[in-house]
Sequence to fold (103 residues):
Amino acid sequence: MTTARAFLSRAEAAEYVQSHGLPLARGTLQKYATTGEGPRYHKFGQRCVYRREDLDAWMATKLGRPVTSSGNAGAAADGRQPAVVSERGSRPRDPAEATDWDR
Fold:
């Protein structure tokens, strides 16, 4: 009987995330390690190693909230209205700042 290893290499960590149906390349994990966007990892000498529970927690934070239709996909979780984007492609704005052109 084999037991799962406690630590995964960066390549194994990327495969673990992919096995859950989420796209992630080893190089992306490497980039995330330098930018702080990725899952927690541990240094073992020169190597970065990952725990499954840290990968699971990180995947959970990256997933958006469940939606039932594309109409409510942009709604904020706290009940606020989503920002209005004008048809001209300008930056998103607060709905209170929208002009007649934007509506």
